[in-house]
């Protein structure tokens, strides 16, 4: 900021600011876009589901389509950061991860084996 610094022999100096943007536990910034990671059960990935996700404007419910693949991003248009020097905003993307259970009951294992035999 020109002329807003400390007083020197030649008058007021310039003021320089260093701004550091902290991290957020929910969001990652990619340019003007925001990415949030969400995990779904593999049955929800296969069959589809509804999912509540945080946004800068509060929680939104999205539909996870049946057959979604891990790493797929679902776009929520216009919920990112404002574009610098332009109108409009970036997007918010929900990157889907699939949770695979670490242990199964005998019944769950039997059902999955049955699905496997059926070609899934």
Model description:
With 120 residues, this protein is an alpha+beta fold. It has a domain of 78 residues: Sandwich (HSP40/DNAj peptide-binding domain), CATH 2.60.260.20. It has two helices and eight strands. The strands form three sheets. The protein has a four-stranded mixed β-sheet with strand order 3-4-8-7. A hairpin with a 2-residue loop joins strand 5 and strand 6. The chain is elongated, with a radius of gyration of 24 Å. The mean pLDDT is 91.
Largest sheet: 4 strands, mixed
Total beta strands: 8
CATH superfamily annotation of the domain at 24-101: Urease metallochaperone UreE, N-terminal domain
> Helical percent range?
10-25%
N-C termini distance: 63 Å
Unreliable segments (pLDDT under 50, ≥5 consecutive)?
none
As for the CATH topology of the domain at 24-101, it is HSP40/DNAj peptide-binding domain
Radius of gyration, CA atoms, in whole angstroms: 24 Å
Question: What is the structural class?
Answer: alpha+beta
Please count the helical segments: 2
| Shape designation | elongated
- Level-2 CATH architecture of the domain at 24-101: Sandwich
């Amino acid at each position: 900021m020109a002329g807003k610094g400390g007083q020197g022999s030649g008058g007021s100096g310039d003021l320089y600011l260093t701004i550091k943007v902290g991290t957020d536990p929910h969001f990652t910034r990619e340019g003007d876009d925001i990415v949030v990671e969400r995990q779904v059960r593999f049955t929800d990935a296969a069959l589809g589901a509804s999912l509540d996700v945080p946004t800068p404007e509060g929680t939104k419910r999205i539909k996870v389509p049946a057959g979604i693949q891990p790493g797929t991003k679902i776009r929520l248009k216009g919920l990112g950061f404002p574009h610098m020097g332009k109108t409009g905003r970036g997007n918010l993307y929900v990157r889907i991860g699939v949770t695979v259970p670490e242990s199964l009951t005998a019944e769950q294992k039997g059902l999955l084996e049955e699905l496997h035999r059926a070609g899934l």
